[in-house]
User: Fold these one by one.
Assistant:
Number 1:
Amino acid sequence: MTRSRRPSLHLSTFSIVGADPDAGDVGVAVQSKFLAVGAIVPWARGGVGAAAVQAFPDVTVGPRALDRLAAGEDPDAVLDALVRADPMASQRQTGLVAADGRAASHTGEDCFDHRGSLVGPGYAVQGNVLAGPEVLAAMATTFLDHTGPLAHRLLAALQAGQDAGGEKRGMESSALVVARPGGGYGGNHDRLVDLRVDHDEDPISRLAELLEVRDFHFDRTPPSAWFPLEGEVRGEVAALLRRGGWLDDHTALPAALMDFMGWENLEERWADDDHVDPVVLAHLRGVHG
């Protein structure tokens, strides 16, 4: 009898899927010695959950798992059903988290060592071809210890895994995806964060840089922290906009401010006609001050 060959495609990868039920966020962070891992591993759906599919991945597992979560199935039951139906489950890894924080993970016995999964409240971490079990332990601890937006907690966990030894073959690509109902640009889709580093010597550090840029452009300052467009603030904003050529005698101040924000890709930080986001004001000062 001829023994079948082991498939050559194996994403030596470590990832975390996580949920922040209070914020309504679900997401995935992943790093791999593989080109453009973000095109394969991470899947997320606002209000439903997130999945990471890796090792010898069947990318259809991601959307199929999320469909089952959306239908009300428990993450453990979802993975159990998918594994039982998959003749190659022993070579696959899948992490799954529901929007309410329930999580599950599957690591097949034929994935390359060190391989493993850890599951806790609001997260699942999984990896293969790892330096050792300390990689996953560091990721889980860091995720639980960090506060703040889910994207930053996921990224911190990913960096902790790398700091603990990461993947034996090294680094090449990374990705960070976070979904929230209505959280995407324009408010009509769920893609709150969607960042990829497809080929880089230090993809996690590069991903952190991209997240900082993303936060600058697309985060929304709480209304309680907006500055009223009155008194000295109004006078300063008007003077800066005039200096930059945005405001003249025929243009209303809110319209001029919106024009400036659109030019600088800051339109997601629009407050209202009577307020200005402090991040926008700081940038206006930097550009035209």
Note: The longest helix spans residues 203-218.
Number 2:
Amino acid sequence: MRHGPVWRGASAMLLVLLLAAGCDSGDSGDSGGAGGEQSGAAGAADLPGDIVLASGRDVTGKGGIRQQLIEEWNREQERKGSGHRARLVELPGSADQQRSQLLGALQSGSAEYDVVNLDVTWVPEFAAARLVQQLPDKLVDSDVIESVAATARWEDKLYAVPFNSDVGLLFYRRDYLKSAGVTDTDLDQGIGSWPVVQRLIGALDAARKKLPDAYEKGWTSQLDASYEGLTVNGIEAFASASDGFTLTDKQGRYAGSVDDLKAGLDELRNRTEAAYTLPDAAHSDEADTLTDFAGGRTGFLRHWPYAYRTLHQSLPEQNLGVAPLPGRAVLGGQNLAVAKRSQRSVAAGQLIEFLTSKENERCLLDAGFAATRFSAYEDDKLTCKAVKPPGQATASPTSERTDRMPRDTYGRPGYARGTLLPALKNAVQRPRTPLYGAFSQTFTAELARLQGDKPPSDAQLAKDLHEQLKKALPPG
């Protein structure tokens, strides 16, 4: 794939004239104006007015980095006299509620969204339903991390552009390990395997009297079965137990086996044993686990990259460490897509290209997101010039900062290059299927049985899960 501008200046005008003249006017059902083909308005020129971008909450806070980037694009459009402005609409509720809102709005046309920020697991569903437009391959080039780039495609066609990524990480308390007599507390390059984590937890438990009274159990994670947290932890355990593990084929059909499921269940059960796991984890989401870890109740925490900035606001750098998860971690994040019915497809594509550019991916990284491009982590000459990320006085790496997040010599978050980038490169995707909602609901419901008073054996649960997944995702 090659990267290039999305129809700027004269090129954009030529495109509009060609489309208006009826060039390539046959409706294939999956091509879009942002891709230089058929627009959502049957080839008509962009209408003037706001480009509306619908998205979930920005974890960098109110007036955060996403809003700042949009404001910079608006200033650029004003200088050019394009007649377009972008407007961010943040959707309320959980991720599942946001998905339902977007599906309803795009299917009914009740909301005039031009760009939608999709969770990576939603892309196949929105693409298969023809709710978003096909985009040109050049929008995702070789600078985008390979594992991340794969989340933007469905059936070998590009329907979205990676905006910010996500990956499971393991945060840990250096001060607790030191109190327990662990001599090497610099684990940031990797802990190796889950048994190593369990041995370290054993050291903490043995030294309980030397730890703060708040300490209860070794680790916590998002194991609440009422949302995606248990699914994510389950996939991480399953992928760690079996090399090449997959539950779906390229068409999104069920392709698992009882043996693979049994191995994954054994790994998940081992990771969540009562001897190691905070009891509240079974009912915890992201906010709950952050609170428990920051409050000292555990020595280890599985969480997402944004926790790096958040936790450093309450814990000093010398007390907090972060490492890639042992085994395989799940890839998360959001991708930008052009709504099928957008009447401003060309400008929407230009907005997406701006938001996902090399410089602006560096801005997202500086603000606490996981960037999608190698250059944000590896190009020391690349800086965020367009905006001032939260907590920074300026974009200069030597400027005084108001946040407490450690940074390297070039102003990047301290863990970005050595820990975050390798974790992203090694990450696995959740099953890619237009029926992801049905998969996750089925998967979580079965895994939740492990938390009951009389959990089934791994063999029995593997057989049951296999049968239920075949119903939710009919095999080919």
Note: The first strand starts at residue 49 and ends at 55.
Number 3:
Amino acid sequence: MSDATRSGRQFGDGPLGRFTALVHTLLVVELLLLLTTLPGLLPLLLLDRDASNLPLAAACLVPVGPAVSAALYALRHQRPDPTDLRPAALFRRGYRDNLPGALRVWVPALLWLTVVAVNLAHLAAAAVPPWWAALLLLVAVAVALCAANALVVTSLFTFRTRDVARLALYFLVRARGVTLGNLALLAAAAGVTAVFSEAVLAMSGALFVLAFLRISDPMTERIRKEFTA
């Protein structure tokens, strides 16, 4: 074995090598996230924050689901070795393979959330009691958390859509740490969007996806052990 090969392996196995690999992977994934969500992100930034634009905003968010699915796949399968970095190839593979499944999960969730958001925006006109707004908020949060679980499952495993939905609902209750972690991450994303803009959230998308993946690790490990051969 040559000195150069030995040195490369030592660098790749050390903390500096792993950190370098992670930074490179996050930068590439962030760039690809921006490119794949750009068709929806640009018109979304131009929309006024008005209730009448909620269906248009939902349509603009359709590309986000497949992009996040591809990012989850790339971050999950990328080896922490600076001599074997393939985040772009992994992202492309994840996008291609996961596109149908991600859309089957993401589009219905967007439709549900849009309906809830439109109803919340017109509560005063509907003259409904205050508790109805709280119930709608609970429904929206539950839909978002189920969609998050389903997106992870369909991105990292091969199941039928109905089985993906069942697993998402099952782990919403049985993996409480994952549910609470995703709830905190969802609140953080909403806070960044409210205080800054959707553009700031998009520019930190790879970090949010990495956190999303790490939070979901207990769920994915249980699925691997209990539901796969």
Note: The two ends are 38 Å apart (CA to CA).
